# Entry
Amino acid sequence: MRPYELSLAAAADAIRARRVSPVELVDSVLDRIEQVEPHLRAYVTVTAERARRSAREAEREAAAGRFRSPLHGIPVGLKDLIDVAGTATTASSRVRAGHRAETDSAVAARLTAAGAVLVGKTHTHEFAYGLTTPQTHNAWDRDRVAGGSSGGSAVAVAAGTATFALGTDTGGSIRVPAALNGVVGLKPTYGLVPRHGVTSLSWSLDHVGPITRTVEDAALVLPVLTGHAPGDPAGLPNHRPPSEGDLSGLRIGVPRNYYFDRVGPDVEAAVRRAIDRLEALGARLVEVEIPMTRYIQAIQWGLMVPEATAYHEKALRDTAGLYAADVRILLEAGALMTAGDYLRAQRARTLMRQAWARMLQEVDVIAAPAVPATAVRAGEDSLTWPDGTVESVSDAYVRLSAPANITGVPSLSLPVGRDRQGMPIGMQLLGRPFGEASLLRVGHAYERTEPARELAPAV
Amino acid sequence: MSATELTPPEAARWAARAGLPLAGDRHGQVAVIADHIHSVVSVLRELDFGDTPPAIAYRMGEENHDAAV
# Structure
């Protein structure tokens, strides 16, 4: 196995055992980038020189027996909304031409302190305001969308051009591309991971989180992002999820409404099979009724649309012509929403959060499809469901993600199979606020029942 | 057209009042998208909010930009 093919957990073990050096790992990932990046376009910028320098430093420390964390010497890609001092945060937009971040974002600083090696900044749908990331190609089929908005991050992880990556998620932007490219995406609890230095789409809904090859890898990244230093005597000695796969005593909620409505047949079958597997591991399945589903899209839009417009207010007045057409029109139209509509969305968010808290007293975790459909062909705008309804691709991709953004509950997307075209399918596990450990435990238990996943072909 | 739908000149006037002057060729498109957004969010008017406060958090003394639950 070549170093770029290693999961984060396997690479961390290899580095600690001195079987692989950080320099070898980073060189291998940079070679892989050279080989497949022309087909994928996951990166805005590859920081090869900086990466090699960091890898040499990590190697010197390793030779001296110093390992900063499980991320020591591990190559990472950052969505290009995340500030890194001295580099541009382009947001994949012409509006940001000439940009240079003066300081590190909180998450970039924590990753650097933990020894992670930045290999580059990854593409986003412009300013995270979209679900396809049109510059980037799906890692499994170049003619299909990457998903978004953290499309570059998910494609890089799927193709082996980053060992892990960070994304942001306002309406599914970590989980959607993770599901569409067959990797793991974790949207943590609202507020758990600091957003300082990360370009905002919507303050009420934005989250930062990891995109990884495995659930175990996500469990290794999360404590670094939340600031739990591995060397801290008060910190957890081992962040890996428990290795036994027994889920006895765990109650897993299976939605009887919403999450399985208007979902592709292959997606539904794969997710239901995965849920059966969780039951076979000892979990008790409990039907749950998802509350307030009629208002989910209204709340999501009522919060996101005016907040995005507010963030871009000055640039819209000065340089509106530099935005892509799809993003510009949404930003402009957002100026016409009234404060009354915005406040109704904020008050409805309170109601929905309370209703979800009541539902989550009955179960420990909810299992559902992450995205109703797999990756569509580039240029396809809409989906037609068997009931005859037509839905835009972006509405469909957001639909099952938005509840976790509105309520703030953590949500983990993990691969559970592929459709008949070979495109990856994701299952979503949702939990109580700050219940990430339960999601990681269930996701890891599921993964242990499956053979190790291969990297995407990426050519 | 319903009584609440915006005409292009109304969209231009609303945008200007909101502080965003729109170029003339934008009025029609912006009116269409603003109407669509309005149709999605106006369903929230069905809810009885009672004393429910908005979910916007303000914590005295917090100066950083991190999110807060």
About this structure: Chain A touches chain B through 44 residues (CB under 8 Å). The first strand of chain A starts at residue 43 and ends at 46.
